[in-house]
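2024-03-11 09:14:02 DEBUG pipeline.ingest accepted 1 chain
2024-03-11 09:14:02 DEBUG pipeline.ingest length=251
2024-03-11 09:14:03 DEBUG pipeline.predict start
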Amino acid sequence: MTEQIDLNRIPRHIAIIMDGNGRWAAERGKPRSFGHQAGVDAVRRITAACTRLGVKFLTLYTFSTENWNRPADEVSALMGLVLSSLEDEIFMKNNVRFRVIGDIKRLPEDVQKKLQETMEHTAQNTAMTMVVALSYSARWEIVEAMRVTVREAITLSEDGNCEDVVQKLTEEAFCNHLETRFMPDPDLLIRTGGELRISNFLLWQIAYAELYFCDTYWPDFKEQDLQRAIVSYQRRQRRFGKTEAQVEQSE
């Protein structure tokens, strides 16, 4: 599979919905926490693989806002895994910078502290940025960005003039307040586990992303699976509203 990849056309930003941990564990007669632990091992593999391929941003959907509705013992186990996985030296070994997006204030204080420490510790790493979406919801993000954008527009307008406010409500101003404002939009979105939906993940940012779904559960997702997704991506023509002829002419 490696020989099929064009290293000059590697997606700059890959986002992954890591689905299937619980079902993977259930098929083995194990508790869901066992699947989540195996999922951490997959994160290590794929992070290293993305770094080797030259991917610049890897965003992982780790814990959604809706996941707070799961059983308390599972949520507690997931938070524990977040803490233990952040101890992993994969960041320094692979020169990877760590960032986090989401409603972080809802997380336990020890998790918040460890997240901040890891971001500071890896801030100078340059090979790739790994972004973890924790307590994240795209709808939450959009609403929060909208509130800040409107408040800013009112503050900058002349005497709160309605028309002046409206003129300041631009797409650029809105994007400047998204959680993901520090990185480009995803080129490729991968979802493992066989489900064919987005599940409230980066809804604004994936407007022009290529989507790739596979049946492989996340704990079984290996470098060859990542390569297969990238080959699929590279076989597609990204037109961004243009015609096929226009794209071919520009190339």
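2024-03-11 09:14:41 DEBUG pipeline.report DSSP finds ten helices and six strands in the chain.
2024-03-11 09:14:41 DEBUG pipeline.predict end
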